[in-house]
Design a protein that fits this description.
The complex is a heterodimer of chains A (426) and B (147). With 426 residues, chain A is α/β, with parallel strands linked by helices. Chain A has 3 domains: 182 residues, Aconitase, domain 3; 105 residues, no CATH class; 110 residues, Aconitase, domain 3, CATH 3.30.499.10. Helix content of chain A is 42%, strand content 14%. Chain A has a 5-stranded parallel beta sheet. A 4-stranded parallel beta sheet of chain A has the order 7-6-5-8. Chain A has a two-stranded antiparallel sheet with strand order 1-4. The longest helix of chain A is centred in the last third of the chain and has 18 residues. Chain A is globular, with a radius of gyration of 22 Å. Chain B is an alpha/beta fold. Chain B has one domain: Phosphohistidine domain (Glucose Oxidase, domain 1), CATH 3.50.30.10. Helix content of chain B is 27%, strand content 26%. In chain B, strand 9 and strand 10 form a beta hairpin. The longest helix of chain B is centred in the C-terminal third of the chain and has 13 residues. Classes of the chains: A alpha/beta (426), B alpha/beta (147).
Chain lengths: 426, 147
């Protein structure tokens, strides 16, 4: 790799051994992908995936401590993924004991480390950092050193920023030296699609299901999606962005998609159209039958497949303000229809602290609370990843949560029915 | 016996029994539970991976197309290495992905006493040929012997 004088000096240890190791890590990372140069990180903020103070990942805290002690701090402030704990979320005595004393016993310590390294503000914990209410929203063309698969795919696809699917820890390395290796999704060639996905459904496809199908098919390739603008329009308005947030998270977690283009909708597809598609691209046709097949093939890992759900999570990735409002309307209508006053399954809607703060200023918050739904800034994935919660029959409309935990996936409409009517399933 | 030639991502030699996945290896879903709850054999906990679910991974030659899923993947792999619960080596049929590369490189640069050789670009034929239980030997030059 051709380094600038400044980069070479860092690598040679002129700014200390720790910074040299940071640069070596980035150089090796770039060389693994044939990068020839490093380019400056140009976004205002970074975003880190590692937000949880799990006692068991002590090696990460040791590495962070090395960075802090050497003064190798982030040149950018950053947001981080959601916190793993929130007292608002239902948990029994044993679960609370395990969460606080055994699993996340390093949470305060780790948040202290993040503040020293450059956390934007004390509550900057969400996977949807790009929400207006959070304020970490990069501009088109900016180069990022982000991680968090759902945020990276959103930043690349919807905002037109440029970011590789960086791993936790690697995200911070780029931010410390201010450069990232130039390869993959940072390059024009790497942003070209090797798949054409033709959406030929007869109704609007469920975002989380469509994303899952595409992720499992194309894996880490870039898909160019045709026919979706018929259902979500040609403008990146609030509704379309929300759809793409959930869709993208499913492509990234069920596969490894870091960028997708939607014909007539996403910024690069609007600018370049099918010129973004590589020659001899593969074709994947998705109709209603294909989505049904994908959903039916999800394994059910509950011990009792017909168990009554004990908890429901909506909001992985975190919900937008408009989603919270829309779901409030839907839950109220559902409860009225089925003659219930409160949701019949304990239900948690998750969103960024900043979004929740805005939501609390509206009358919707009072109305949602009256339905019994709890709001939280928690990471449902972190909540679920322990043997006690893993044994619970938890339902969700998140395909990401389904992928990583024992939570069972249902479409938005099915979830609404489960929490407002309960009992019989549709 | 067959030999395959790939590209060395992180150096080292190894001899270990193969475990094989034909689908993407979801690092977080596969390893988090075992790291969190003291399973030194690092049994795969990814319910979506029928090839590996329930099988121990620590000390085995993990043969895979690529890794997928959460961007905590590299960090999880780094922790597995630091806790000595990593595969003996990782052998990729495809060019390596950014998350696996990060984990392997972080371990190589930041951990003093850990070796997990990684070879990529071994080709689809490699995954077609290798089966669970076969013995894998990796040379420094990225030559992989399967027998």
């Amino acid at each position: 790799m051709k380094l600038t004088e400044e980069q070479q000096a860092i690598l040679d240890g002129e700014k200390g051994e720790t910074l040299a190791k940071v640069m070596k890590t980035l150089v090796m990372y770039g060389e693994a992908f044939g990068a020839e140069t490093m380019v400056p990180v140009t976004s205002k903020y970074n975003h880190l995936v590692t937000s949880f103070g799990l006692g068991v990942i002590a090696p990460v805290y040791d590495l962070m401590e090395q960075l802090i002690e050497a003064g190798a701090l982030s040149k950018q402030q950053f947001s981080a993924d959601p916190r793993p704990l929130d007292p608002n979320v239902p948990a029994n005595f044993l679960q609370k004991l395990i969460f606080n004393k055994f699993m996340y016993n390093k949470q305060d310590f780790y948040e202290g480390q993040l503040q020293k390294l450059g956390l934007m503000e004390k509550d900057a914990f969400t996977c949807t950092c790009y929400m207006d209410e959070v304020g970490n929203k990069p501009e088109k063309g900016e180069v990022l050193s982000w991680s968090e698969s759902s945020a990276v795919v959103y930043a690349n696809s919807v905002l037109g920023a440029r970011c590789n699917r960086n791993s936790g820890i690697m995200d911070l390395m780029g931010s410390i030296v201010g450069y990232v290796p130039y390869f993959g999704l940072l390059t024009d060639e790497g942003r070209k699609a090797s798949w054409i996905v033709k959406v030929e459904t007869k109704k609007k496809p469920e975002a989380q299901l469509l994303g899952s199908a595409i992720g499992m098919k194309v894996m880490e390739d870039v898909p160019y999606i045709e026919g979706l603008d018929r259902w979500i329009g040609t403008e990146l308005n609030e509704e379309a962005c929300t759809y793409l947030k959930d869709f993208g998270a499913a492509t990234a977690s069920n596969g490894a998609v870091g960028l997708y283009h939607v014909d007539n909708l996403t910024p690069e597809a609007k600018e370049c159209g099918k010129a973004l598609v590589k020659e001899n691209a593969n074709v994947y046709v998705i109709d209603d039958e294909e989505l049904k097949r994908v959903k039916q093939n999800y394994p059910i890992v509950w011990k009792q497949p017909n168990a009554k759900p004990k908890l429901c999570f909506v909001g992985c990735p975190h919900m937008s303000l408009q989603q919270l409002k829309d779901w409030t309307d839907k839950v109220e209508t559902g409860l009225q229809k089925y003659g219930n006053k409160k949701v019949v399954i304990p239900t948690v809607f998750t969103a960024a602290p900043g979004v929740l703060k805005e939501f609390e200023q509206t009358d919707y918050a009072r109305r949602l609370k009256a339905t019994g739904v709890i709001t939280s800034y928690i990471c449902p994935l972190m909540y679920m990843n322990n043997p006690l919660c893993a044994k619970m029959p938890v339902v969700t409309s998140s395909n990401k949560l389904r992928t990583y935990t024992t939570a069972r996936y249902f479409t938005d409409d099915e979830i609404l029915l489960l929490i407002t009517r309960g009992g019989r399933r549709s | 016996m067959r030999e395959f030639k790939g590209r060395v991502v992180t150096p080292g030699t190894a001899k270990a029994e193969a475990v094989v996945t034909h689908g993407g290896f979801n690092t977080l879903a596969s390893l988090q539970k075992s790291l969190q709850f003291g399973d030194k054999t690092a049994k795969c906990n990814d319910q979506n991976n029928p090839d590996l679910y329930g099988k121990p991974l620590a000390g085995y030659a993990l043969c895979l197309p690529q890794t997928i899923g959460s961007t905590t993947g590299g960090m999880v792999l780094y922790c597995a290495c630091a806790m000595k619960r990593q595969p003996a080596c990782m052998l990729f049929a495809n060019p390596i992905d950014s998350l696996a590369a990060a984990g392997a490189i972080l371990a190589d640069v930041w951990l003093d006493d850990v070796t997990m050789p990684v070879v990529d670009s071994l080709g689809e034929e490699f995954l077609d040929y290798v089966k669970d239980g076969m013995m894998i030997t990796i040379g420094e030059d990225g030559k992989v012997t399967v027998e």
